[in-house]
Amino acid sequence: MRNKPRGLAEILLTEGLIEAEALREALKEEKRTKETLHQILTRNGTVSPENLCKALSLQFNLKIVSLSTIKVEEGIISQIPQSMARRHKMFPIEKKDNTITVAISEPGSLPALDNLRVLLGCEIEPALTTEKEINTALDNYYGSDRDLAQVTIEKSEDEEYADAIDTTAVEGEDTPVIRLVGLILMEALRKRASDIHLEPLKDRFRVRYRIDGICQEVLGPPKELQGLIISRIKIMAGINIAEKRLPQDGRIRIKLLEKEIDLRVSTLPGLHGESVVMRILDKATLLIDLRKLGFSVQDQRKLESLITLPHGILLVTGPTGSGKTTTLYAVLNRINQPDRKLITVEEPVEYQLSGINQSQVRPEIDLTFAKILREILRQAPDIIMVGEIRDAETAQIAVSAALTGHLIFSTLHTNDAPGAMTRLINMGITPFLVASSVQGIIAQRLMRKICSNCSEPYTPAPHELMEIGLSLDDISNQEFFRGRGCHRCNQSGYHGRIAIFEMLPVTDEIRNLVIRNAPSTEIKQKARELGMKTLREDGWEKVFSGITTTTEVARVTGSDIE
């Protein structure tokens, strides 16, 4: 602790921050009670918080900071346990080399900084601010008790989930575990996470948030709480808490600040306990405007032409988590008109779309894609969206429906657009029927966008260009950007995501290749001759536009064959 050449009382008086009589009364109260002079003056308001902060700064030779004007590094915040930060009224500001600057509002917090120094294994530089600024910062970054109280569990209006939640458990006592689960959810929403991963390891309980497609570890709760936390989540999701040997699925609907958010919950037994993944389905983040998905003007026109055809199949391909469902939802939203009947079959229904009939696959009662699709055709639809073509039966029905006057939208798991043709043929559909029914294919991936708050120009190294198939000759006079990292993007340099696309309209030339069962490489070569941009080439355009980086293009297209 620092030397104190002058006491607080002397400083307040000599600096003209308090009247002599008021100081005498406060000193008398200090003798009568166990409170410090600082605590008494704070409680009775004799000295303004700003003047008290000034006096403490002089007493302990500490700098004064204003948290409201500082851009705090969120990566630093996660290093200090929330309970410790609130108990000792401390808030981390920045880290330089091996020193973290921590704001405090009273000298009583100084001894706790010594404990923090040991905990983090680095030097701690204290700074002063008012208690109000400390509390505001803690609430903004950790979530306030008032916000936590507004995380409520909603009874779903859907019949399927009507009995999924045990309301007696929800309305029970506000235990620390209940609050902890609420804070985990709050923090995930604040950080724009798409998934929450709770993973029991041998020596700890790991918590990770998937943000912009990348898993980021945060400070996890004590290992001994993992069973209670997982049981709490299982109760909220209507999952059998006694069953720990089998994987289970459930769903939670929470209401936060008048906004409904669905959580898809999946449990998986493991060596050190059950792991839980919660997929966050926030309607507010769902992009259903085709113009905002990232299509180029040329590809946008091609897509608009495809989705207004009277019949045929439009396929969206890509790996899990590449945004295929979002693209299909945007397409449905674009063509959803009162004079058309639209029906979907999904597993599960991720978002409810107004004016569209949505059905859900239920494997537990043998209600499959194929069975629902067969029944949908009796409902006289104009347009059908099939969440995924997984098997030969579903593929056969989809092709038959397309050839009998229906417009079908669906997804496949293939690496590129031409590969979708050979995938259907490998499922058992004859090449002629594939060529006759499929009108267009979109392959896509999701890439992180450069954070607009910290974007800066830079010159990429030659190896960065080589990773995405470019050379110095290809980029003359071309400016490149990257994010240097800031509080808004949690020092990652990225904030948000955008899709890259490979658009393949099926022309007569492409149909001829499919009919003679040409390999996908030959189909791709012909498609490129006809003007198709590959995923990587679309990525180049977004790099040249300052939207993303060469590193991101390499990450998401590295395994693709050009």
From TrEMBL:
All residue ranges annotated as the Bacterial type II secretion system protein E domain in the record: 377-391
SMART domains: AAA (SM00382)
One GO CC term, this protein: plasma membrane
One of the record's GO molecular function terms: ATP binding
Keyword Nucleotidyltransferase: no
Origin superkingdom: Bacteria
PROSITE patterns registered for this protein in UniProt: T2SP_E (PS00662)
Keyword Nucleus found: no
Keywords: ATP-binding, Nucleotide-binding
InterPro entries with a match to the protein in the record: AAA+_ATPase, P-loop_NTPase, T2SS/T4SS_dom, T2SS_E_N_sf, T2SS_GspE_N
Family from the record: Belongs to the GSP E family.
Protein name: Type II/IV secretion system protein
